[in-house]
Amino acid sequence: MWRWVRQQLYTVWNFVPKNLFEQFRRVANFYFLIIFLVQLMIDTPTSPVTSGLPLFFVITVTAIKQGYEDWLRHISDNEVNGAPVYVVRSGGLVTTRSKNIRVGDIVRVAKNEIFPADLVLLSSDRLDGSCHVTTASLDGETNLKTHVAVPETAVLQTVANLDTLIAVVECQQPEADLYRFMGRMTITQQMEEIVRPLGPESLLLRGARLKNTKEIFGVAVYTGMETKMALNYKSKSQKRSAVEKSMNTFLIIYLIILISEAIISTILKYTWQAEEKWDEPWYNQKTEHQRNSSKILKFISDFLAFLVLYNFIIPISLYVTVELQKFLGSFFIGWDLDLYHEESDEKAQVNTSDLNEELGQVEYVFTDKTGTLTENEMQFRECSINGTKYQEINGRLVSEGPTPDSSEGNLSYLTSLSHVNNLSHLAAGSSFRTSPENGTELIKEHDLFFKAVSLCHTVQISSVQTDSIGDGPWQSSFAPAQLEYYASSPDEKALVEAAARFGIVFVGNSGEIMEVKTLGKLERYKLLHILEFDPDRRRMSVIVQAPSGEKLLFVKGAESSILPECIGGEIEKTKIHVDEFALKGLRTLCMAYRQFTSKEYEEINRRLFEARTALQQREEKLAGVFQFIEKDLILLGATAVEDKLQDKVRETIEALRMAGIKVWVLTGDKHETAVSVSLSCGHFHRTMNILELLNQKSDSECAEKLGQLARRIREDHVIQHGLVVDGTSLSLALREHEKLFMDVCRHCSAVMCCRMAPLQKAKVIRLIKISPEKPITLAIGDGANDVSMIQEAHVGIGIMGKEGRQAARNSDYAIARFKFLSKLLFVHGHFYYIRIATLVQYFFYKNVCFITPQFLYQFYCLFSQQTLYDSVYLTLYNICFTSLPILIYSLLEQHIDPHVLQNKPTLYRDISKNRQLSMKTFLYWTTLGFSHAFIFFFGSYFLIGKDTSLLGNGQMFGNWTFGTLVFTVMVITVTAKMALETHFWTWINHLVTWGSILFYFVFSLFYGGILWPFLSSQNMYFVFIQLLSSGSAWFAIILMVFTCLFLDIVKKVFDRQFHPTNIEKAQLTETNSSIKCLDSMCCFSEGETACASVGRMLERVIGRCSPSHVSRSWSASDPFYTNDRSILTLSTMDSSTC
């Protein structure tokens, strides 16, 4: 069992074998390893170095990258494991390292220190044994959480006392759930065993930080990799992009081509050798061993030799280039200042770079509502008390209808509320004393309602300001203006703040005492029990003892969980008010109470103790006790808080819809609230026909309703439809009627799923993923309840919001606001997809160009397996001569201005469904590669292959000169082809494009101009120099390069003029509207049309200019982003340069 934390994958001793094993699990790497071994074992036409060196390069680069990442993890592990801690041993405090903590050790943690293991709290410097912690590093929640020790250990506040403690802690096996812990502590005192239950409130998690408490002592129960934090470490995403799947398909096709070429060559060789004069010519007599060898083995050997000869048609360097492109390209997202949120100081994060191009393929977006579409900043707006509806206006409650302050019945919302610290009006009395006829009874009802709000919560108050005041942390004379509330739920904080504004001020708790000021008068309530919130009950409760001795239950929760349990109060009126609140898009909660007799409370106390001390089925037993307690309630009323929409949510959703992306909202809110928010954010249109699948009770009822909805859609196929479905109905639909439900959903423009459990969200996404169309899905959310759907979707995006960091930690990408999704998809996603699609197609193209002449050459050398190229050229073709231009292209290419992509979301449709890697496009690039290869080979053959006057001394070109000529034309052509595909030129593009060609010439002159002593043969000595000395060779090179590229240019011109894509149309129309620079970044004079001349036509296709010379003009109506400092533009964009 590891007592220390370990995230690293490798050690010094196992790095090499383990990393090699992982890398050779990749099919292409394993294939080239086999080829390399074949070259070592049999006589092959090429040196083993030609396969071994590229393979070694790919393996080494990948190993260095993975080793560096693991080294960073190793450093992080050492920092955590080596942190000093204090442990109680032998009656004293001993300093040790975090990795040496054992289960059962008593650990001391001081203020602001991080807990080194999962500890059960034993005692603190406070008499009640409580402490405050913040779990921001675990779940992002910055509120202070209170943890309490059991009474028997809370008094043991010294090391000497703790050393005498005799206790046994029994708890469940380690699990990842941060909020679940079950155990019990058996304490032996004076020969008597005392059993106390342990729950999440007793457990201090590793990674959390101690706050507002001088020191605590805790016993370690989980250490090292068994802590909850370690169990929540996210393993690397195993998601695969559509591009990677297409790449594998293309590799299989090329593998078939390779095997076919090898079989054809082998058969033709033996067909040719059927004649005796070719089987054993006079100049190449066979040995006796060759004559007697097995023909089958010889056939297999020849087949393998041809396989080795042609194996470069499989581009091994494609994988390492794609990995580099994804890894380096991911930095552009983090560098993009348009995705930086200044208020929260958050920039976009990339947790996995494997899915960059998938951002350009999204067809469905599944989004959470609260905190994702909304701000998750709650503001109290209205409430219903005993059947009367109230609004807050200027910090006062005003009932619906004419009042002394308003002559109109329906009052509009105010846009802002007084801050919680602005409480100076409280001394004057309660703000709802607006009408003298309300009477004492009304005041009592209001007091009880807001006391329920002030007591039924888990809100904490920061005590930093009060450490030096009085004897305890909370004083009766505590000034309201000093209060600062912290809550895990923004709803709770908004409600407690609202109650404070209306005269019922929660001023803190001391141990089991909760202190509330009612109109300036301090009241102390003893907190007896907290019935924690859970998603199944959808409510929470507290049992308190009032100053008068009454035992009261206060309950707060969703109306669907509260109203059915109520037997008194204005139930019908409150239900109507709740529905009205929901229609306004407000979040609602109902408040109720119950008074216990002494006998009832004794029974409840006994049942709670039994359930909480149970080690088996504790949760089920607690659920039963909670249900027994939370019944026969008296309804007090309901609250309504507003969660404002985030900035530009409506515009973003509309842009997604224009891009052909369907948006589904998955939320846990009630359907009235969800529909209202959907309408306000543009998810649903006012003109849209809203279909509802709600409150279905049985499979048959659900099937009948789905059939009705399907018929309505067929009858009203002209208008747009939106669908609202709740969690209960969804469960029935997914259980028996998936096909019918999916048919309805596919014909709806927008779908809203409400009352959803987290696993239901994931199941819906799974259903869409496996549908016949296999669409690419994206899930975006901000809370822990969104993690399941984020991990299920093809692309998961976390919002770094107020509900914690679990969603961001478990996502593939993290952004600060929903509005950033548009640029992430329409600009980054578009660019990434175009870049990597071109990269993949170009790699296959240049390797076809590379190896096809080798295949054709066999027809002229009697299939003797003679290689056309020198082994050094074979090795360096993909590594040096042609690698950098495509890598830089795949990082910097912008085929259209980023602003155009963001302002015209319809352009996103052009790249959907993996169109740039369709079989048609793949066949075009492959055909282009074969045609260019034929021009290289036969052009060289017919132009200079039979010319006897090429050299000054009358010498003819040899086979190495011929092969070098083919190779030279090929390097220039494939590099020029990359230049032809490049639209956005920077100095880096110029450097690597023309530099690659220059490097080839310089290298060849250097390589062929020296006799290298370590080479077994000097085939290339003086070959390249002789080739360049021939005017005919230069003429042949220029003619063949021009012929290859001219055909491609003509096709591009023809397509642009007669069959332009939407992107090409946008490039051209921008010339006459606002942007005076086309995709080629070349500038045109004002008013010149696209077809002014053939010269201009060619410039639009192949003409290029530097970004520094680009002149853009913008019309006044065009949206211009003055703060666009995106790294994508490579330069600052401002109005003066446009």
TrEMBL record:
UniProt keyword list: ATP-binding, Endoplasmic reticulum, Endosome, Golgi apparatus, Lipid transport, Magnesium, Membrane, Metal-binding, Nucleotide-binding, Translocase, Transmembrane, Transmembrane helix, Transport
GO BP: any one term: phospholipid translocation
Membrane association type: Multi-pass membrane protein
Residues of the P-type ATPase N-terminal domain: 5-51
Binding site for Mg(2+): 368, 370, 782, 786
Documented EC number(s): 7.6.2.1
GO CC, any one term: plasma membrane
Protein name, entry field: Phospholipid-transporting ATPase
Gene source species: Bos indicus x Bos taurus (Hybrid cattle)
